[in-house]
Structures are given as structure tokens and as C-alpha cells.
Amino acid sequence: MSHIDKKNLILGLALTGSIAIASIALGETHLMQQWGFSALLLAIVIGIVLGNSIFPRFASHCGDGVQFAKSDLLRWGIILYGFRITFQQIADVGVMGILVDALVLTTTFMLAYIVGTRWLQLDQHTSILIGAGSAICGAAAVLATEPILKAQSSKVAVAVSTVVIFGTITIFLYPSLFYLNQKIGPILSANDFGVFTGATIHEVAQVVAASKEMGDDIAATAMISKMIRVMMLAPFLVVLSMWLAKSHDTHHAQRGKITIPWFALIFILVAGFNSLHLLSNSIIEILLTLDTILLAMAMAALGLHTHVSAIRQAGLKPMLLAGFLFLYLLFGGAFITMLARIILS
Question: 0.85 exceeded by the pTM?
């Protein structure tokens, strides 16, 4: 902090904070909720618009604060995200939800890396970021993975964009599939369809938007399934960090340094503490509001550092990878859900 200009820091935080507050307010409108656009997604969109128009003119006066929001505030936002889930939610859905979520996450990410790096010849960072966003919890997973990779802002923005595009499609597609499923079979029971929904849709907000059209009970199951998937973010980051260190060791003939993402571990501890229900609902609401603000500020900072030209240069391949993963989540996720039910029957 000694090398950071305090005025620069304050101005940058004021800018990202203003974008965050505007995004949260906009995200609470009926239209944005209907379309499943969360404050996080809106924050990066506003950030990108400003980052490619007026922000470059005064970036030198607030760059330190924007960078602080993009790195430090992001980590604290992920930690506070733990107050959104409890270990009891895992018990409510049971082994079925854990098994489906674990299989979906693992297979989706492995496919993302193999298809992205080997078939589409994408760089490792882009493949991992798109894989994390598709496999776990959308933009939040992309943001949580970025500190481990130290990826370029443009690559992070590309990954987040895929979440927006394909996640939005699920909002309209899944309710239709649910009613079709009920009419022709069903292939999946109502409860299993809720597990499937939470295990395969990208964003939490998108799960809410899609599942609420299927009934309250199914929506509750979908959200619990989604929260279990979110909780898997922390162990995923630890394993990813260790794997990247080992990969570094293999390619450079020297031992790579394993970077343990401390914020991911604290995230699990916070979820465990939240499971004890020691805090009042009013305090939890305040913490969740703070969490939304911090994550929205991080997304705004990411958008301000993202240049549209860099996204255009990424080309068609990232979209092809995200589209392939979207289809896998749809068909592969349904198969995994049916397989899990057979195994556990």
C-alpha cells in the first residue's frame, strides 16, 4: 500500500463503487430480474462501456483504486459469498445432489480443457476460465479463478461473456424442457429435474429465473443443488492451483510453487460458520449486501480494464467452446442425473 497514491485509490474505489451501486439498482428492476441479469453481469457491461469510451482519459488518476477493486475486493467478496450457503443445504438434497454436482463439475471442466486446448487450439487460460464458469457458478467462478491464473482482463471478459450468452438461453429453455419432460414421461422426476437445473445452469441468478417457472418446490431443490455446486468452488481452486504447479514443474524441470488460494479456504470456513446460524437474519442481510457490492465493484473494475478490441481478437473459438459445453451440460447433465438416480436407487 505504500506505493499506492491514496487519492488515486479513493477515486478508483469511488468509480467502481458508483458502477456497483448503479448495477445493483438496475438489477433489482423487474425487467432485469425477468431476464436473469444479475448485478454482477450488469456491472461488467457498464464497466466495459466506460472502459472503451471515457475511462482511458482519466485512468491515470484512479487506476490504483480500480486495480485494488479488481484484486483485493474480489477476494473479500468471494469470502463473504460463503454466507449465502450452509452445510445443511447439502444435507437437504442429500447424496443425489452431491453426486450429480461433482460429476457435472468434473466432466465439464475436463472437457473444457481438452476441447479448448487440443481441438480448438485455445490458450490454457481461456480454456480454464470458460471451463470454470461453465462447470461451477458462472461469472463468480471466472473471477475466483483469475487470481490463480493471473489471466489477462480480456480473457476473463471473454469467459464472462459466454456465461451471459448461454446462461440467458437456459432461462427460456429449461422451463420449456421441464414441461415437455412432464408431458412425455417423465424422463426425470420433478425433484430430479430440480437437481439437474441447479447442476447445469451457469449463474445463480439464472437458476432463480429459470426454476421459478417450474414451481416453488422444484425451485428450492434447484437452488440447493446450485449452492452445493457453488461450495465446490473452493476445493476446485485448491486442486487447480496444485495441478498448475505440478504442470509447471513438468515443463520447466524445476519445482513449481503451489499457490493455495487462501480466500477459497476461508470461503468454506465462512459457509461452515454460517451453518451454525449464530448471526441474526438482519446481520446476514447486511453481509450479503456488502458481498454483492464488493463483487459488483470487482466486475466493474474488470470491465474498465477490458478493451472490446481484445475480445474481438479472441475470435469465434471461445464461443464454440462455450457452446459445446452448453450442449454437454444440457444432454450430459441429464444423463448424469438419470445415472445417479439409478445408482442410488
Answer: no
